[in-house]
Amino acid sequence: MANSILKMKQITKSFPGVKALDQVNFNVKKGEIHALVGENGAGKSTLMKVLSGVYPYGTYTGDIVYEGDVCEFKSINDSEQQGIVIIHQELALIPELSIAENIFLGNERVNKGIIDWKETIIETRNLLDKVGLHIDPQEKIKHLGVGQQQLVEIAKALSKKVKLLILDEPTAALNEEDSENLLNLLIEFKKQGITAILISHKLKEVFQVADRITVLRDGRTIDTYNLHKENTTEAKIIKAMVGRELENLFPDRKSKVNHEQIVFEIKKWSVFHPKDPERQKLYDVNLHVKAGEIVGIAGLMGSGRTELAMSIFGKTYGQKISGQMFINGNEVFIHDVNQAIKHGLAYVSEDRQGYGLILIDSVKNNLTLVNLADLSNRGIFDLGKEVLVAESLKNSLHIRTPSIEQKTIHLSGGNQQKVVLGKWIFADPDILILDEPTRGIDVGAKYEIYQMINELAERGKSVIMISSELPELIGMCDRIYTLSEGKITGNFETEKVDQTQLMTYMTQSEEG
Amino acid sequence: MDEVIQLVRSNMRRFGMIIALTGIIILFQVLTNGIILTPLNVTNIIMQNSYIIILAIGMMLVIITGEIDLSVGSVAAFIGAVSGVLLVSNDLPVYLGIIMCLLLGALIGAWQGFWVAYVNIPSFIVTLAGMLIFRGLTLVVLQGRTIAPYPESFRGLSSSFIPDLFGGGKIQFFTILIGILITLIFVFNELQMRKTDLSYNFQVLALPWFVVKLVLFSIVINLFTYILALYEGIPYVLIVLSILVVVYTFLMNRTVLGRHVYAVGGNIQAAKLSGVKTKKIKLIVFINMGIFAALSGLIFAGRLNAATPQAGTLFELDAIAAAIIGGASFTGGIGTVFGAVIGALVMGVLNNGMSLMGIGIDWQQAIKGVVLLLAVAFDVLNRNKTH
Question: Touching check for A18 and chain B: CB below 8 Å?
């Protein structure tokens, strides 16, 4: 039983100034699903890059023993030849090419140098069957949803005769249903003898499918646990990950909702797709937030939650927007981001790298961007004051960076998110819309972000929090709306609702 | 000492350019037996490259926003042609002609900026079209002929020198006085900045190094004005250039507008969601480029003392090359005005040095191409290393 497929021994990998991996040991048995967990920056991705040859042999020390042989991978091609395939968090498919073309990209089925389309399509169909995707192989990738694209990636891995499949946060961008599919697929593969390494922040799904779990912290292996043993609990894993006991996943907050004061309200808010005026994305949405209240919007991906947030925030999404918006009881008409900011709105995007930060710019410049007016006089700003503001935000929000001049691209996900929140805190809005504020962030940083959100509410701000993680919404919010297919399907006091109820309303559809 | 090494390392890109420029100057100083730094030649380098430097500054802003402008050479030629018609054929007062030409430049910039910012057509296409449109219009305006000569006062803008108030002998004392004045302003300004930094408790350069820096800069400034004083003194064009450099450096570093320009190039989506008026910023940058192209066209026409159909050919490529050598990133968001000037000077000194050595125009082009490629390669490698 102890026949291992992979042994990584004493792996050490250094970058200038940091030791990313410090004598890491990692063993995977044949035919198991092995989870690899740890906070952001713990070294999970680095370890997998060493394994797959992204960091070639010679740039690290230690041995990789794969199926009994010591391996010296010099590139991804070498490891793929051995059946090790890694599927990255950011999908690497080409949107303009078809499913079949993508699957066999770099590995084309050829006959005397000419692509054999018939065989390509037939094989693609077989592969798609295996991952349970019943779509025309000639469909372009850009027409698929994220979940489907993920499955295409897996089909592509299968085409390479994969023995060891590595999935880096595969469900981060998926809704519950697609996640469930994917996890079931992993179990199916296990039966066929494919070994899988699953990197994930979602402990729940790890416990659902994995056999064993290895925890990394600060570039070191903490331990490997058998998940089939009774005494392996989520709390134990979290403790191993963060190195301390987290009493509560969510910080306490004395809810100080002012029930008299409705700060923000929309009535009969309808929005159409920006490119397709026939396609309605939101139907007569009614919603309100009081002063000091944290209101959750529970919705699956595609339910229209981001569309709702962005259409409110200066009409940055959609067309033919109708309905009324009230701030402190007065009707307002907001047509662009500037007006939205002037009316005290803030929007933290779910895509912090794409929409939240200027990655090539410094922490300081990102923090002050929204509210340069406060630092300037007639368009000329006070550099000294700017540095002071940035320093104080850095300290009060515990942004871990060597300096405020550091480019945000070098920060970890959690610290990047703190910068995005920080820039809006500096803008001092009254109403904050937070779209998936803790996506892809480790447990410790999540807690700090929850604390920030609580603090904002305690100061009397109104917060709208969009999330697909129900425990998070229940842990944080005073009240939760459920959104399904562009319609509000429910409005619950948090004490009177549980996850199953929310999920029922979130998946409620027209026909059902 | 560690402090200085740290400083050099963190500013590698900027210091790298200055070191490269110094290296090239020293190289040609040896190869040309000292001709390159003669007062006459230094003055020449400034006047020959003034119109490229102006374009490079404007181009730097365009590239920082993540766009490109291929039309500047044609626009410069078109404006030159219009100035010929206004000033030579119609005898308009010089100041009126110049104002009209600059306004026309702004209008052309607005036209191109409109298509880029509000209709979302890639700037490469819009300005490629502009390149053809304005080259064509140049021929239309000039009807294929050359218009000359310009009135004396117009030519002065690009080819004469500020008069020596002290009568002038072998040395232009007024120029030296200006050098000393600039040094004083510089030292005073540095001291002020240091004082505010200290009052905020910011980290500053250790006192000895601060003094070294001041002395070094003072020597360079005064050496430069001294060399100019040995010839005819300070050309008017240099004053125009200096004002542009100072104003635009301030604009990019100290104003909300400047910060917004960087933000648009750094990540246009994030900038938009942060309340930056991205379309307006792009429009402004293109209008600015239009004005700069017009100014460049006027100076070139004045220097040539003629409006010709072929004026400004390949200027756009020189300007883009200068901006890139000067540290602009083609993906946007990165670059400095100072860098654009250094980049343009690198190209200018190369041209001048090779001409002095008697290298033909054929080899000059090839060598400049290699330099451009190496500069960018150095940048890319350097950036990969720091990651």
Answer: no
> Would an 8 Å CB–CB cutoff place A356 in contact with chain B?
yes
Q: Which residues of B touch A372 (CB under 8 A)?
A: 256, 259-260
**What pLDDT is recorded for position B8?**
64
Interchain proximity A358–B266, CB inside 8 Å: yes
| Interface probe with A: pick from B274, B279, B334, most Cβ of A within 10 Å | B274
Angle at A257 between CA A256 and CA A262, to 5 degrees: 155
**CB of B294 within 8 A of CB of B102?**
yes
Q: What is the pLDDT of residues B39-73, one digit of tens each?
A: 999 999 999 999 999 999 999 999 999 999 999 99
Q: Which amino acid does the sequence have at A187?
A: I
Closest B-chain CA to A369: B274
CA distance A152 to A136: 12
Q: Which of A336, A358, A372 has its CB closest to that of B270?
A: A358
Helix boundaries (H) for B200-277 = 207-230, 236-254, 256-266, 268-273
Nearest neighbour of B202 by CB, restricted to A372, A376, A387:
A387
Distance from CA of B127 to the nearest CA of A (A): 27
| Tokens, residue B385 | 């290393």
Tens digits of residue pLDDT in B343-373: 999 999 999 999 999 998 889 889 988 988 9
ipTM comes to 0.84
Contact B275 A338 (CB under 8 A): yes
Q: Across-strand partners of A479?
A: A295, A493
> Per residue in B245-279, pLDDT tens?
999 999 999 899 999 999 999 999 999 999 999 99
Q: Is the pLDDT of residue A307 over 70?
A: yes
As a whole number, the mean pLDDT across chain A is: 87
d(CA A235, CA A443): 12
CB contact under 8 A, A423 and B274: yes
Respond yes or no on whether the N-terminal peptide bond of residue B149 is cis (omega within 30° of 0): yes
Beta carbons of B263 and A341 less than 8 Å apart: no
Strand partners, A36: A199, A214
Six token digits for residue A266 = 């929309």
Distance from the B200 Cα atom to the nearest Cα atom in chain A, whole angstroms:
7
Burial annotation A286-322 (CB, 10 A radius, 16+ → b, else e): ebbbbbbbbbbbbbbbbbbbbbbbbbbbbbbbbeebe
Scanning B66-125 for CB atoms below 8 A from A yields none
B383 touches chain A (CB under 8 A): no
Tally: H helices and E strands in chain A: 16, 24
A264 pairs with which residues across the strands?
A: A289, A327
8 Å CB contact of A357 and B259: no
Write phi, then psi, for A188 (nearest 5 degrees).
-60, -45
CB pairs under 8 A between A and B: 79
pLDDT in tens, A180-234: 888 898 998 898 889 999 998 778 888 889 999 999 887 889 889 998 887 888 8
Q: How many CB atoms lie within 10 A of CB B250?
A: 13
Dist. CA B24–CA A67, nearest whole Å: 57
DSSP A353: I
B22 neighbors B346 (Cβ within 8 angstroms):
no
